[in-house]
Amino acid sequence: MLPRTRAQDVLRCHLCDTPGPPMYCDICHIHLCKACVGEHISDESKDHKVVPFKKRGLNPKCSKHSTQLCELYCEHCGVPICVECVSSREHLGHEQVGILKILDTKKEALQRDLKELETTIYPKYKDIASNIPVQKTDLKENSKKLTTAIDKHGEELHREIDIGVRKLKSDVVEIDSKHLGVLNKKEDEIKCSISEITKCIADLKKLLNSNDVSIVSAYKSRNAEFRRLPPKLTVSLPRFTPQKISKEQIYQQIGSLSALSIKTEEHGYTMDSPGAESSPLPDRPLIDVPRIITDINTEYGESNKLCIVSCLSDDELWTRGQDNMLRLYNLHGKLVKSIQTKSGKTPQDIAVTQSGELVYTDSNDRTVNIVKNTQIQTVIRLQGWYPLYVCSTSSGDLLVVMVTDDKKQAKVVRYSGSTEKQTIQYDDKGQPLYSSDFFPKYISENKNLDICVADYIAGAVVVVNQAGKLRFTYTGPPSTAKKPFNPVSITTDSQGRILTSDLNNHSIHILDQDGQFLRYIDNCHPWDLCVDTRDNLFVAECETGKVKKIQYYM
Fold first, then answer.
1. Are 469 and 255 in contact (CB under 8 A)?
2. How many CB atoms neighbour CB 514 within 10 A?
3. Nearest to 26 by CA among 2, 52, 3, 44
4. How many other CB atoms are found less than 10 A from the CB of residue 110?
5. In this structure, what are the phi and psi dihedrals at residue 404, rounded to the nearest 5 degrees?
C-alpha cells in the first residue's frame, strides 16, 4: 500500500502537523494550530498576519508593495491599498474605507443581485422565452390565412376580368350583326335597281328594232331616275382601344398587406441599474450634504470651454467643448479618444445610445450623426429646421429638439433610425410647448418614459408624457432662489428623479418625477449634467473645464 501524500491528508499545522489547524497566516500562506502561532510570529525576519482560518485572504497583498497587506479601499481609484500606499500620498484626498467594510458592502450587493436574478429576472426571461413558440405558431397560422385570402381575391379579380373580356367579345358579335344587316339590305336594293336597268336596256334595244309608231311613241325614259345613284354607304368599322396597363392600379385593386410592426414593450418589470457602489434600493433617500467624490481635470478651459458631458459607462465620459472635436475621458482625466465632426465645425449636442454609440447634432449642416467606431454616419438631415439637442431613449429611439429657420417654431421629434415617428409641439390648447430660439433646450427621457426639456429662455422644465401630452411645467421652487430660474441642462436617474442645472443660482434642482422640488445641490458651478448607471452625478463646469463626480443619495 502506498503511503498517504499531504494532498490526500486533511489540513495540518505547517509546524507541528496537528490536523485541522484553526489559524492561518495571510502573509506566509501557511496553516497554524493555536499552539504554534507564538512560535511563528516570533520570526521577525518578515511580517506576519495570523487570522482565523475562515477569515483568511480577506486582506489581499498590495499590488505595489508586495510585502504589505491591504487594509483600506480607495473609492476614487477603485483598488485596495496598504499603509505604504497611504503614506506615499498617491491617494491624498481620495475617499477611503476599510477593506472589510467594502467586502461586506460588495457581498450584500452580490446577495441582492443573486436574489433578484433567481426570484424575479430569471423566471421572467423564462416566461418571455416560452411565449416565442406561441408567436411562431400564430405567425404560421396567420400566413396561411393571408395566403388563402390573397388567392380568393385573385380569383375574384380574374373572374371580373374574364367577364369584361366576354362582354367585349359579345359586343363585337352584336355590332357585326347590325352592320351585316345594313349591308345586306343595301345590296338587295342595288341588285333590284340593276335588274330594272337591265330590263330597260333590253326594252330599248327592242324598240330600236321596231317600226311600230304606237309602241315607240309610248316609250317613257327612266334615265333621270337611274341617274340618281344610290347613296354611298359609309360605315366606320369599330376599333378596340386597349387601356394602358397600370401596375399601380392593378396593385391597388389587388390590395396590400399592412406593414410589419415589431414593438419592444416593457414586460412590467424594470431592471434597475446598480447603485453608487452596489445595486440600488427602492426609494433611496437623498443625503443631507451631497459630496464631491472626484474632480476630473480635462484640457478644456478659458480658450475652449467645456459645454457638454455624457456618460459612456461608469468609467468614461464623452465631452464637447467649443471646437470641432468630441473627446472621451476616463475618470482619471486621461484622454482616451477624440473624433472630429464630419462638418469640421462645432457640434450642438451629444448623447450616448443604449448600445454605447455616440450621437451628435450639428446645426451647421442640419444633421444628426452616429459615431460607430471611428466612422461617422449621418442618420437624419433636415430641411427648414435646425437640430439642436438630442437624447437616446430606453427603446433606442432618438428625441431631437429642433427650431425653424426663422426661429418661430420649436418642436421635439422622435426618430426610429431615420424615420420620423412622433412630433411634440403644442399643448391641448394649441399653445407652443417650447420657446423657439437657439438657447439651451436640453432633453432627457425619464424612467417612466416622460420627456423632459429644460427650456432656458422660458425659465421652465417642461415635462410631457410618452404620448406628448403636457404633464407639468416646473418654474422653480416658491421663493428661495435669489435670481430667476433659468435651467440649462437636464438629466434623470434610476429613481425617476429629475436633475436640472440652474445657471443663475449656481445650483442643481432635484425634483421627483411629478415635478415636486426635493432639494438643491449647491457645491459646484453646473452647466451640463449626466448620471451613470450607479446614479453618480457628473457635473460639467464651463469655466473651470472640470467634471465633478457627486454622490447625492444614501
1. no
2. 13
3. 52
4. 12
5. -75, 165
φ, ψ of residue 493 in degrees (nearest 5)? -115, -175
pLDDT in tens, 413-448: 999 999 999 999 999 999 999 999 989 999 999 999
User: 417 near 423, Cβ under 8 Å?
Assistant: no
Q: What is the distance in angstroms between the CA of the first residue and the CA of the last residue of the chain? A: 64
Record the cell numbers describing residue 63, joined without a space: 499590488
Asked whether the predicted pLDDT for residue 4 surpasses 80, the reply is no
What does pTM read for this prediction?
0.54
What is the spatial distance between Cα 481 and Cα 363, in angstroms, rounded to a whole number?
33
Chain-centre distance for alpha carbon 213: 121
Residue 371's SS3 state is: strand
CA-based torsion, 104, 109, 112, 113: positive or negative: negative
Q: What are phi and psi of 304, to 5 degrees?
A: -145, 90
Best mean pLDDT range from 132-141, 237-246, 336-345: 336-345
Residues in a beta bridge with 96: 74
- Going by their DSSP bridges, the two strands 517-521 and 507-511 should be labelled as antiparallel
CA distances, 459 to each of 123, 454, 455, 511 (Å):
46, 8, 6, 15
pLDDT, residue 285, reads 85
Rg (CA), the chain: 46
> Please, what is the Cα angle at 74 between 68 and 79, to 5 degrees?
65
**CA–CA gap between residue 504 and residue 197 (Å, rounded):** 121
Q: 24-38, 249-263, 339-353: lowest mean pLDDT where?
A: 249-263
* DSSP notation for 222-235: -HHHHHSPPPP---
Q: What are the cell numbers at 235?
A: 360605315
For residue 122, the SS3 value is: helix
Residue 88's pLDDT is what? 84
Amino acid at 20: G
Confidence band for 273, pLDDT divided at 50, 70 and 90? very low
Q: What is the pLDDT of residues 493-533, one digit of tens each?
A: 999 999 999 988 899 999 999 999 999 998 888 999 999 98
Count how many residues are written for the chain.
554
Determine the residue type at 120. T
As a whole number, the mean pLDDT across the chain is 86
Angstrom distance (rounded) from CA 161 to CA 480: 80
Establish how many alpha carbons lie within 13 A of residue 20's alpha carbon, considering only the half-sphere containing its beta carbon. Answer: 0
Q: How far apart are CA 484 and CA 88, in angstroms?
A: 47
